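Q: What would this chain look like folded?
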Amino acid sequence: MRVISYNLRKHRAAPELEGLADEHDPDILCLQECDTTSIPKTIGDLELVDSTKGNRLGLAVYARHSTFRIDGVRTIGLKKSLHDRMLKPAHERVLGVRMHEIDSGRGLIIASFHAAPLTALNSLRRKQIRAALTELQSMGPDLPVLMVGDYNYPVFKESLGQTVRDHGYTLTLSDDRTYTRYRVFRGHYDFATSVGFSIDSIRTLPQRTSDHRPILVTAEAA
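A: My prediction, written as structure tokens:
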């Protein structure tokens, strides 16, 4: 299974999606910072599963419907940062999809995730990640879970990795930095947490219009 995650930088990178899908042939596409009022119903062979509704810039998940059948969708609100409270509420920070592979019949859960911005504390983001993983697992106990997206966590990943492991999950980084716009903030922002998946690779794709580079996850449900 091939999954692309991409933060569109306030929807600016949306025109790239067709080309990205054509070039890398993903089975699932997870987006962050997309204008949910203007995203297309289809991107190449992928169909829109659902998107968040609470704020204009949100999350979306696309899937290849010839490969997957959708069993349920859940939008998950997480604890707000001060930035969210003072500027624009962004409580819908997880979009989870329960699906099954048509050929194998295996069930799985895929999620697009966008953590609180860098103005928030790492401790808040760790709480958000723990809460997100707990809520996703409740969608299908014992099903494999793969959550990809913008974690906004460029440093001190040892603490995050331990938090994720304590929760029974694995944190996997891509092969190169995903955010390069400002030197002081460069690092791995976009990666994956998973349980019940074998992660073959996570490749950072070339820089495009967004300040984030897309990542391509190749994985298999156990």
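The chain has one domain: 2-221.
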